[in-house]
Design goal:
This is Glycosyltransferase subfamily 4-like N-terminal domain-containing protein. The protein is α/β, with parallel strands linked by helices. It is about 40% helix and about 15% strand. α5 links the parallel β5 and β6.
């Protein structure tokens, strides 16, 4: 069996999922290939995807997709995907996240490929914090592309319900498959090392998260909640592990509230598991997940 994964969002949770899925399939005798950009637009330091897969022996089919909507770039990416699908007889095409999900489904239909087409949204873009008009556009694009795939994979019953209720696909074509996550092995000594690196006292309450600094993840709520906690627990510290376009805004928010000394915005870290292991409490402030 031969599978082509099509990915534009080669960072953060999508990266982790596709890396685990593609390499896991190979271990079970399934040939996996990945069509993706060699470097994602606005990667914020998270650039290990292509190197990781190449080192694992998984072929990369370069496609210059980008996150933002750009008719010329998107048309070129669509043309490239059609060419890839016509060049190789894949059995399954698995699309990941909204941009690759839309272009990949159009390409699968236009190419005449006989492969089964499966789409994992990794979060529904039309639930975002953008304008109502933009979210309505994303919803209509998802409904259009939903006609061109055999299954949509939700990671939870609630996401499955949203996909069905918003008319992306009928219930019989929406499956719920929770993400499998391999628990990392982190030495117990890393907890003290992380606190020492960040200048956080050993006994101070440490609260944090690991996520992109993006509107979906709602860093504004994280900072506002930190300010409330500090009124009762002035020794507490807060860590955000992950980069993103809202880094400067989040830091400015903490500064304006007078809590910058207790808020640590680390950017992308390859040792995120060790950072999280140092937390006393994990917060998730996302507006939605997927």
């Amino acid at each position: 069996m031969r599978v082509l994964h099509i990915v534009e969002a080669t960072i953060a949770g999508v990266r982790t999922h596709v890396q685990a899925l593609a390499t896991g399939l190979v271990q079970h005798g399934v040939q996996s290939e990945v069509a993706c950009p060699l470097r994602r637009q606005n990667s914020f330091g998270d650039e290990q995807f292509v190197e990781y897969l190449t080192n694992a022996g998984i072929p990369i089919r370069p496609v210059a997709m980008q996150r933002s909507i750009d008719p010329r770039s998107d048309a070129a990416a669509l043309h490239r995907l059609i060419a890839i699908l016509r060049s190789t007889p894949y059995d399954l095409v698995h699309l990941h996240s909204s941009k690759a999900g839309f272009l990949g489904r159009l390409a699968a239909r236009a190419s005449g490929s006989r492969a089964a087409v499966v789409y994992s949204p990794h979060g529904l873009a039309f639930l975002g914090a953008g304008s109502a008009a933009k979210n309505q556009l994303f919803l209509q694009l998802e409904r259009l592309a939903g006609q061109f795939c055999d299954r949509i994979i939700a990671v939870s019953p609630s996401e499955r319900g949203l996909i069905i209720s918003h008319g992306l696909a009928p219930a019989e074509r929406v499956a719920c498959i929770p993400n499998g996550v391999a628990a990392p092995k982190v030495p117990a000594s890393s907890r003290a090392a992380v606190r020492a690196e960040l200048g956080i006292p050993a006994g101070a309450p440490l609260i944090g998260t690991a996520a992109r600094l993006a509107p979906q993840k709602n860093p504004g709520l994280f900072v506002a909640a930190a300010a409330l906690v500090l009124q009762q627990q002035p020794a507490a510290h807060f860590v955000w592990c992950g980069g993103g376009e809202l880094m400067a805004e989040a830091r400015a928010d903490a500064e304006s509230r007078g809590i910058a000394h207790a808020c640590h915005f680390l950017g992308h870290r390859d040792d995120a598991a060790a950072i999280v292991a140092a937390f006393d409490l994990f917060w998730l402030t996302s507006r939605y997940e997927g």
